[in-house]
Design goal:
Elements: E1 5-9, H1 13-24, E2 28-32, H2 36-55, H3 61-69, E3 71-74, H4 77-81, E4 86-89, H5 95-108, E5 114-117, H6 125-128, E6 137-142, E7 151-155, H7 162-174, E8 178-182, H8 191-207, H9 213-222, H10 230-237, H11 239-253, H12 262-269
Parallel strand pairs: 1-2, 1-4, 2-3, 4-5, 5-6, 7-8
Antiparallel strand pairs: 6-7
Helix pairs in contact: 1-2, 11-12
This protein binds acetoacetyl-coenzyme A.
């Protein structure tokens, strides 16, 4: 199926950058959010990122202007959905919110449109039955920062059609990503299961007083070649997001081992969410978010 128009629902760190990636790949894109101030913030951040890329010689001024010209921002979900070939939902990790969005998208989007979720927590089977087109629903899971990270997990639920999968894989490839097909829904899919194993061990080592979190990060970078240590990564993703993912996974599995680590809960309860709040494991005064 030909995809020309993409709608991204949610203008947080993930949604806004997914929209920018799609616009850079030549798609006509609308990023939609219920909050106009969030949309304004997203627009300003993306402009600043494009300015940086131009300043570094990574992108021509013309290409940046053309991509920004293909990117629209709207608080009117139904109107934006009416012309979408593909909608990518990147709203908060709350199932009821997502189901509401999928029902609204199903009502407003053309019959051929594919409805994907960027959720890392919920397999698309959890939202597919809120629509009348479950075969056209799947996960399209990007990684933070979406402008940079190449992986996109495309996850099918039992009823996802092959043509939906083929189309979403093709879109991810045109976006310059390296899509990975996940054949069965499983909590955490693949990448987050790998990352979670490392993060859990890092939290244990820290909580047991074996090493400081800074030194654990240094070991991950200098011994394992990871671009960031697990604590830096938690700050990037958002401690609140990591915390919420664990709670949702626990709700699904009932396994106490899936509960968030107390050290993580303590920081979240203090409002230390990571880079976006200026403080998490580390402090980020004056750092571009
Ligand atoms: N948003 C957009 N672009 C960013 C960025 C951000 N937050 N942070 C850095 N960048 C860009 C920079 O602009 C720069 O771009 P150019 O190459 O065009 O100049 C590039 O990334 C490299 O940045 P830096 O030189 O400043 O720093 P770096 O080399 O340390 O790279 C990084 C930064 C890309 C974030 C790198 O540290 C990295 O890959 N970290 C690991 C990230 C990771 O593991 N992400 C997965 C998170 S898990 C997840 O997302 C799943 C989930 O479900 C929660």
């Amino acid at each position: 199926m030909d995809v020309n128009n993409i709608l991204v629902v949610g203008s947080g760190a993930m949604g806004s950058q997914i929209g920018m990636v799609a616009a850079l790949a030549g798609y006509q894109v609308t990023v939609s959010d219920i909050s106009a101030p969030m949309l304004e913030k997203a627009q300003a951040q993306l402009r600043s990122r494009m300015d940086n890329s131009v300043a570094k010689g990574r992108l021509s001024l013309e290409d940046a202007a053309a991509a920004l010209g293909r990117l629209r921002f709207s608080t009117e979900l139904a109107k934006a959905a009416a012309s979408a070939d593909l909608a990518i939902e990147a709203a908060t990790e709350n199932l009821e919110v997502k189901r509401g969005i999928f029902a609204a998208l199903d009502a407003a989007a053309p019959p051929h449109a594919i409805l994907a979720t960027n959720s890392s927590t919920f397999g698309s089977s959890k939202v597919a039955d809120a629509t009348g087109r479950p075969g056209q629903v799947c996960n399209m899971h990007f990684f933070n920062p979406a402008l940079v990270m190449k992986c996109v997990e495309v996850v099918r639920h039992e009823g996802t059609s092959q043509s939906t999968i083929d189309t979403v894989l093709a879109v991810a490839t045109r976006m310059g990503k390296a899509p990975v097909l996940i054949e069965k829904e499983i909590p955490g899919f693949v990448a987050n299961r790998l990352m979670g194993a490392i993060r859990d061990e890092a939290l244990r080592l820290y909580a047991d007083g074996i090493a400081s979190f800074e030194d654990i990060d240094t070991a991950a970078k200098t011994a394992l070649g990871h671009p960031m240590g697990p604590f830096e990564l938690m700050d990037l993703v958002g401690l609140d997001v990591s915390h919420q993912i664990r709670l949702a996974t626990f709700a699904e599995t009932g396994d106490p081992a899936d509960l968030p680590h107390p050290a993580l809960t303590e920081l979240v309860e203090r409002g230390n969410y990571g880079r976006k709040s200026g403080k998490g494991w580390y402090s980020y005064d004056g750092v571009q978010q």
